[in-house]
Amino acid sequence: SVKMKSLRFISAEAFVSNAEFARKNLRGVAHNLFPLLFKASYLLEQREVIHDLVENWPLVDFNMGKLLGTTVDYQEDLSHRTCSMCLESCLTGLRDYVMNHQSPYVKRLKLVDLTGMKDVEVQFCNCKKTMGRWARTQLLSKLCLELLFYLQQRQCNPGIFEISIDVLIDLFVTERNYELVVQALLKKCYCPLKICCVALRFDNLALQKFFYVIKLTDPPLLRKLEIVHNVRLEMEHLGILFNSIHFPLLRSLTLPARTFDVQRFTATDEQMLTNLGEKMGEMTQLTELSMSFSVLTGRIQKLLSPLKTPLKTLDVSNCSLNHADMVYLANSFHANNLEALDMSGHNIPDLYPSSFFKLLSHSSSVLRSLTLEDCNFQDTHVNMLIFGLSSCRKLQEFKFLGNPLSSQALKHLFTFLCELPMLKNVEFPVPKDCYPIGITYPIDDASVCRFDHQKYESIAEELNLILLQANREDVKASTPLFGSYDAAVQETKNELQAYLIKSFKETLEKFTASLNKMT
């Protein structure tokens, strides 16, 4: 739908479309028009104007999410445009705001909020180059250090040292930007731009470095902590973290694969798990928890029952849950509050169908996202699945890749899905009849692409036709074979690949060395 622009917005576009004219005449612009001009410049990608607007920002706060989000004058939300050119202009404008003592405006800026930017797959900006969360972390750290260097080198206007601006940001730290981020955080107290970390993501980082960065950020401010992939965090390390640092505002926690493995538990480990549950219970804001690819058989109650606040998001995919775990979840106070649930990698129909559907019915009034990948749902279970989903009227997203369903069963399911009024996104499996006869599920990575692509295309067309005939072209249906798009993984994939090759090479060398010793 075409979003309407007010006359004010059209005038703002006209003003900023001639960059030279706009930059010359900024001094005559009323303070309350700066936000309007900023959004217009961002839409038109007028990088010099963006820079100058930020450099002379006359207001107390600069909130990217609010400035680019839905506004009265132009309802289009631009906060998912992480255009590299525009964001660089914003951040260098911020550095120059501190350095520019010629500015006619009194420096009132106290708070910059960069957390409202949303990283998405498709970019609409002309340069087509994005600046993701990792690159924003890198650039802000670099600019803070440049600013300090500038202040040390010059006899600056003493007024500069009175400037103190809190910059709220979601940091993303890996081995490659670790040194730079650490330097910026260490020197934070001397820099007029104060990095305030609200969300923190770690990937591909040694444990020692992970602990060091966490201590340098201000943990009491942290709302979201993601520790993923190549951070070798195990339960004992998590215990050390929670015992030594308090996270009173933490709302969201993501732990890496294999954080827990109850198969190797001793009596001490059991006690440690109990303590961890209690520590998480002290985090009264915690409502999102992701613990995928850990072995948690029979221990879900121990971890989740101490929580004082019901969870809204729970990801326990591939956690080897048993019947007792599922019974606990279905009857817990979390069940009625779950807005997003990922139960992938569990054989639901064979292990605990009634407990799972009880959980689904309890969360049905609020559930927005449901992921059931590789759960062994077959044609004979489709009616059961439809019955379970029929009360989930708020469901916006349903992902069920990797289930052995035929094209016939998928058509039946799609006919039902058209009835869910809020549904926007469906990820469905390649139909079983597109694979060679005798294929076993879950399908391994090597065989996942070995299906009849032509047959798949024609079935996908039929499924989309079902949506179309029900006037549901608002629903996007797709089969991302290797999982959904993840902006953070996409941005750092080269570094991760290099790390994996290096560790594979090291393992191979150790193996060869031990073979040589034996001969």
UniProtKB/TrEMBL annotation:
Matches recorded under InterPro entries: LRR_dom_sf, LRRC14/PRAME
Family of this protein: Belongs to the PRAME family. LRRC14 subfamily.
Name of the molecule in the record: Leucine-rich repeat-containing protein 14B
Record PANTHER family: LEUCINE-RICH REPEAT-CONTAINING PROTEIN 14B (PTHR14224:SF27), SIMILAR TO PREFERENTIALLY EXPRESSED ANTIGEN IN MELANOMA-LIKE 3 (PTHR14224)
Origin superkingdom: Eukaryota
Gene giving rise to this polypeptide: Lrrc14b
Gene Ontology, cellular component aspect: cytoplasm
Keyword vocabulary terms for this entry: Leucine-rich repeat, Repeat
